[in-house]
Amino acid sequence: MPRITQAQKKLNRDKIVKAASEGFRLHGVDGIGIQELMQSAGMTNGGFYNHFPSKEDLALEVYRQGFTDSLAALAAIRKAHPRSAQAALHDMVDGYVTAAHRDHPETGCPSAALAVDAGRHGASPQAEYGRGLEGYISNITDMVLERARQAGTEPTAAEAREQAVALFSQMVGALIVSRAVAGADPALSDEILKANRKRLKQR
User: Fold this and answer.
1) pLDDT tens for residues 134-177?
2) pTM for the full model?
3) How far is 135 from 66, CA to CA, in rounded Å?
4) What residues have CB less than 8 Å from 71, skipping those under 6 apart?
């Protein structure tokens, strides 16, 4: 049989990570098996171990890549509002706390979709989640400080970080709670999103 090229190997690995990213966000890490993931990727079950030693290692890669993509999206928001950190913060909230994000966890931020899994699966997933979380908090802290400077105030770095932690935690919490009732009570779910968007933008 012909040897697989490095380019094809990378393509196959990317397919597995994409299938896992969507599957883990939708069903949880424990809610979908390797065989189902490989079928979603259009590959045979036996090929999995050519790319990852275990499902746990794949999950860590999903955390890493998911937060990398989300932080890149946040960087794009900041770049789109070079003169107003307030506008950038509002844009971030409006893009995160939405019905579309609620209804499509498979393509959304891992901070909400994989929070429970990180808490359940021990130190390594929690450490990877924590690195992504720190990326968000650091970026939002910078935005809070920039907004303050533009408004003529000077909070301490500790105060700005505290605001960032609270802001991001509320965004994630709003999404998780809205998802918890979306099927049974869509009106309540929408109300949760609307109320939190309003309050977050008043900070």
Assistant:
1) 999 999 999 999 999 999 999 999 999 999 999 999 999 999 99
2) 0.92
3) 12
4) 132, 135, 136, 139
Q: How many other C-beta atoms are found inside a 10 Å radius of the C-beta of residue 108?
A: 21
Buried b (16+ CB within 10 A) or exposed e, 123-159: eebbebbeebbebbbebbbbbbbbbbeeeeeebeeee
| Residue 199 contacts residue 167 (beta carbons within 8 Å) | no
What pLDDT does residue 2 have?
58
3-state SS track over the chain: CCCCCHHHHHHHHHHHHHHHHHHHHHHCHHHCCHHHHHHHCCCCHHHHHHCCCCHHHHHHHHHHHHHHHHHHHHHHHHHHCCCCHHHHHHHHHHHHCCHHHHHCHHHCCHHHHCHHHHHHCCHHHHHHHHHHHHHHHHHHHHHHHHHHHHHCCCCCHHHHHHHHHHHHHHHHHHHHHHHHHCCCCHHHHHHHHHHHHHHHCCC
With contact defined as beta carbons under 8 Å apart, do 161 and 143 qualify? no
For residues 106 and 103, give the distance between their C-alpha atoms in angstroms, rounded to a whole number.
9
